[in-house]
TrEMBL record:
Name of this protein: VOC family protein
InterPro entries assigned to the protein according to its UniProt record, in alphabetical order: Glyas_Bleomycin-R_OHBP_Dase, Glyas_Fos-R_dOase_dom, VOC_core
SUPFAM superfamilies assigned: Glyoxalase/Bleomycin resistance protein/Dihydroxybiphenyl dioxygenase
Residues covered by the VOC domain: 4-125
Amino acid sequence: MPNELNHIIVHCRDRRASARFLSELLGAEAPLDWGPFTQVTSSNRVGIDFLDSMVPPESINRGHLAFLVTDEEFDAIFRRIQERSIRYWADPMRSIEGKINHHYGGRGVYVFDPGGTVAIEFITRPYGDVP
């Protein structure tokens, strides 16, 4: 039987706010609470389980989620980012604010969850051997 990713746990400051933020950007179903988790389900059925961190905010291990989306999905996501005046960057180091990137002939953008601990990346082309 081939293996497939079923779910991941993402530590954050406010699980419900982070899950709602992601689901709204994706245009996905509303997140569901499940025990101590609030879950967003991706289109390929991977559960992204947000969990309030048990450590002080400055000690949270910063996470990174990357979504490969179609050009049409990117347009819709980017429109939601702009409509909500969400800060965005072309890079995960947050050095190029207010721009998207065009790596591998596609488009990419980074935003951070409301607590600032999870980088969320949307790309239209998978990474290859040479940028």
